[in-house]
Amino acid sequence: MSRPPSLMLADDKLEELIEQFNTLDADGNGFISVDEIGHALEVVGHKLPNYQIRDLIKEFDTNIKDGKIDIEEFKMMFAKLEDVRNLGRKFKKQVKESVGVKHIAGTNDASSEGTTHSVKANELSGFADWINKCLSGDPDCSAYLPLNPATGDLYQKTQDGIILCKMINWSVPETVDERAINKTKLDVYRKTENLLLAINSARAIGCSVVNIGAGDLLEGKPHLVLGLLWQIIRVSSIIDR
Q1: Which residue has the higher pLDDT, 48 or 7?
Q2: Is residue 230 exposed (0-12), middle (13-18) or buried (19+ Cβ within 10 Å)?
Q3: DSSP code of 104?
Q4: What SS3 class is residue 12?
Q5: CA-CA distance, 85 to 241, in Å (whole number)?
C-alpha cells in the first residue's frame, strides 16, 4: 500500500508546514480558517487564485466539512500542489527524450499527402499524466479522467472543449469564464462553441493557434490537439506557482 503524499514530503518541508500552520492557528484549536489558507500556501511557495483555494478546501476538508482545515488536511493539500509542480518538471524531461517515437499521418487540410508527424510515447504519457493530475479534483472532468495515453483518449476526450478550457484555466487562472463553458447537452454546435472559446483563450495566454480550427479539434486531429496541449502546458510550466 502506498503512503499518503504528505508522508512523502521531506522532514524539513514538513517542519516548515507545521510551523506555518501553528503560526496561523493563533488560538491553538488545531484548525486554520478558509481566509488563512491562501496566505499559508503562499508562504510555503504556492500562490493560488481564490477559486482554486476554494476547490482545494472542498477536496481536502474531509473531517467535518466546516470550512476549516486541520494540519493533516493542510499537509495533504500542499502535497498535491507539490505533486503537480514535480510532474511539470518530469514532463519537461519526458518530452526531450527521443525514445518510443510513433508516427501519425498528417490530417490537417494543409498537410501534403503522405505527410507524417512524429509523436513520442513519452509525450503522450506526459500529457495524460499532467491532465489527470491537474484536473483530478474537478467534478466537471470526472467523467473524462483518467486519460489513458495508450488509447485515443487525448484526442477523443478533448473533442468537446471542456478539458481544453479547464487546462487553460489551470495554466492561467480565470482566463476562461466558467459560466461560458457548455457542460450539458453537448451537441456539435455546443461543442464547437467550447472549442472556439478554448482557441481564443489559448491565443489570449500566448499560444499560437495558426491553422488550428474548431473543426480540427472536434475531429480529434492528433498533431493539432497535441500541439495545442503542449503550448497550454508550457505556459503553465513557465508561470511561478
Answers
A1: 48
A2: middle
A3: E
A4: helix
A5: 8
What pTM was estimated for this model as a whole? 0.60
Give the DSSP letter string of 125-152: HHHHHHHHHHTTT-GGGTTT-S--TTTT
* Cα distance between residue 15 and residue 39, in whole Å: 17
Place of cell 505533486: 83
pLDDT surpassing 80 at residue 87: no
Query: Which three-class secondary structure state does DSSP give residue 105?
Result: strand
Q: 235, 207 in Cβ contact below 8 A? A: yes
Helix, strand, or coil (residue 174): coil
Residue burial 183-204, b: 16+ Cβ < 10 Å; e: rest: eeeeeeebbbbbbebbbebbee
User: For residues 147 and 42, which has the higher predicted lDDT (pLDDT)?
Assistant: 147
